[in-house]
Amino acid sequence: MSDLKKIAEAVFEGDYETVHDLTQQAIDGGVPAMEIVSNGLLAGMDIVAPKFKSGEMFIPEVMMSAKALAEGLKLVKPLLSTDESDGMATFLMATVKGDLHDIGKNLVVMIMESGGFNVVDLGIDVSPEQFVEGIKKHKPQIVGMCALLTTTMMAMKETIDAITEAGLRDSVKILVGGAPLYPEFAEKIGADGYCVDAVACKEMAAALVAKK
Ligand code: B12
């Protein structure tokens, strides 16, 4: 088994100590950080997702996988970061109200930071009012919203409506993402874009900022 496959397997098993050791070994061995993220750490979550859906894995086990993933991400994060954030656009990001999923959000945050954006992370279960307050306080150029549940997708629309009602809609570009989303939904709720993953988010955000 390749070293990256071993990392994926250890994430799936929730074995955070092994994830830590193997990730460090891969870094020391010169494997590029993005490769460790995509083909090791996230590949592990790709094993978890269908097993959770089919009932072969339960919440405590998924939480252990999430913890193992976080352990690895902690090690690669400094390698992805740049020190170009001075003068860069601000990206405000959160998972919407009612939704506690944060793995994808954290990944987007990490990749955006690595792209030189100034990132403000408001966390999970963030209400429309908290988004509005966050925009007033941090004055971001881009706002990112994450939802993983079909039941919380509509909280994105409520949030965009609240931003519009507060008179702030023209001051920000809004990107949305998360596994159940699709481009037409983003358009329907009045977002400026949908991205399938964190790297696409960084590219679209950079393009939107350049256009402004
Ligand atoms: C891990 C997980 C959990 C963990 C979360 C741990 C954590 N700290 O986040 C736990 C166990 C707590 C959990 C709980 C629940 N979960 Co859950 N969970 C998952 C699982 C297996 C993986 C999600 C994940 O982290 N994926 C990996 C990340 C990297 O991918 P991602 O989030 O999609 O993010 C990427 C892109 O979407 C994009 N992106 C994400 N956000 C954004 C934002 C922007 C702006 C942009 C541009 C891009 C972008 O970039 C990211 C990186 O590339 C999914 C299965 C799945 N297929 O998604 C189910 C899933 C999302 N969960 C589900 C359910 C039902 C639940 C629970 C209701 C279960 C329960 N009975 O309690 C609760 C809900 C709790 C709540 N209120 O939020 C369902 C949702 C079904 C639906 N149709 O709504 C899924 C799909 C599983 C299934 N049944 O198939 N869950």
UniProtKB/TrEMBL annotation:
Record domain B12-binding N-terminal: where: 1-88
SMART domains: B12-binding_2
Gene Ontology MF term list: cobalamin binding; metal ion binding; methionine synthase activity
GO biological process: homocysteine metabolic process; methylation; tetrahydrofolate metabolic process
Cellular component GO terms held in the UniProt record: cytosol
Stretches assigned to the B12-binding domain: 88-212
Regions that span the bilayer: none
Keywords: Cobalt, Metal-binding, Methyltransferase, Transferase
Top-level taxon in the UniProt lineage: Bacteria
Family: Belongs to the methylamine corrinoid protein family.
Protein name, as recorded: 5-methyltetrahydrofolate--homocysteine methyltransferase
Source organism: Sporomusa malonica
